[in-house]
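Human: I'm a chemist; would you kindly supply sequence and structure tokens for a protein?

Assistant:
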Amino acid sequence: MSEEVRLAGGVARQEETIPRREKWIAGLLLIAALALRCFYIYRYRYDSDEPQHLHTTWGWTQGLLQYKDFFDNHTPLFHILFSPLVAALGERTNILDYMRFAIVPLWFVSLWCVWKIGCALFTQRVGLWAVVLISLLPWWFYPALEYRTDNLWTPLWLGAVATLMCGRFTRARAFAGGLLLGICFTASLKTVLLIVVLVMALCGMLLICMRRLGMAGIVRVLRTSWPALVGMIIAPAILASFFALEGAWKPFIYGTIQHQLLPDVDKKNHPLYLRLIFPVALPLLLAASAWIAHCAPDTARAVRRAGLFLVAGFYYTGLYTFWTLLTRQDYLPFFPLAMVLLAPALVTLAGRFVTVQPAWGLAAVGMLEIILILAGRPPWVDGTQREREILSEVLQLTKPGEFVMDFKGESVFRQRAFFYVLEPLTYVRIRSMIIPDTVAQDLVDKDVCVVLNQDRWYPRNAAKFMAENYLAVGRTRVAGKMITAKPVAANETDHFDVAVPALYIFWADGGPITGLLDGTPATGARDLTVGPHVFAPDAPHGPVAIFWSRAADLKFQPVLDNVGWQDFK
């Protein structure tokens, strides 16, 4: 206990040595980070996961049960927490901007945790600059902007690390850290890797610091750690019990676990030799952590610094070795810990090479990060336009309760006709015939008249069906098809088949046309059933199509000269 008191006193004295000018410089950089974040909320392109998470959140506002009533492959805490805000905002095309702003408090929590960890392991100057530099690090800045579960998962993880490392390690602290780790589980099942890494880091740290701690110290750490296991179980147990009581246990297990278990799904980007990274790096990481512990001024900081280094190192190498489908957001828990470990070196270098005012050297690093942010995503490019246009068209063309067809939830406020999200794991399962391709039948059964106008993840047969039976009107396609691609004479009959029953008009030369449909006059919208039909126009026209009447009433224009899939950037 006395050692902890001495450490606390040392940190307090260190705070007094930070010049006021340095605090102002750091504060201005933090304000710049916040300003950039608020600006890029409106400019940085939406990731495909963001509308999926928002669609799942919206599902909770409609009284739908995740996994059972609609598919999702993430744990639900994030979506449940934000559902009241989505319900309050209602249907709007820019709702993702609001949801990105709602993530800002979680960003502050992450920075606060970095501050606490930096102060506990090093000094308040290190903690301050670790916060400044991580807030502007481009590889963390961009994914931390997004509306995704990882941006709840990351502050929870950092909170657990801060709880376990900042202060005297007691059973109450172990329980609180375990409780936070359990809540991490309900935000993302990637927490499995974090916990494995944490246990391995604990074992490695005890091995490295064995001489400093002594057998009594090691036994004390192990005896104090068990409440963490108790705390870790609570949140997942509550979550599992809820879905079991709702009769959704099997869908819950499939969506969160079984759907992800598809080995070698990303062989191209995750070759076999990457499996060697962790075993090769292991002795190097242990040696480096032993050196870090050796350089620490006391046992408490030796244990914490070695432990943090091993956690960061094991997680980074473990991702490359054991994880498939690596994404940018998988590194979100790593970069803040890495910055805490890097900041002391940067502070030391600034003190040696910028003798007049070391803060300017650190500020130069921050300015370089700002330049990289601006260069990486030019501020004059609006990357959010595509998704807002998709949502605008969907909200105009559909009514509440109607189904649409998209990949992962781009329509946000409408349910997808096909149950599963269409992303790499699902695509591989469909291609391997593990999941049946029922898209075409679902479109007919659920009277779907609006589909997303891009075929990136559509199964082959589904893409062919939609290309033949839906016409592009912009970011979306609506029910309709070409009857004839060549000019027609008056009273010339054309035979065509309808696969998607709906209310149609006949369209040519930029507007509705009239004629005889199946021998009866067709002067307006007609309800066409599935099957063969015959149409003869009253006057000569260019290429003729049937076009969904609701889209025509809303002044949408079908693309008839290029009926294939559009690639709207």
The chain has a mean pLDDT of 91. The first strand starts at residue 403 and ends at 404.
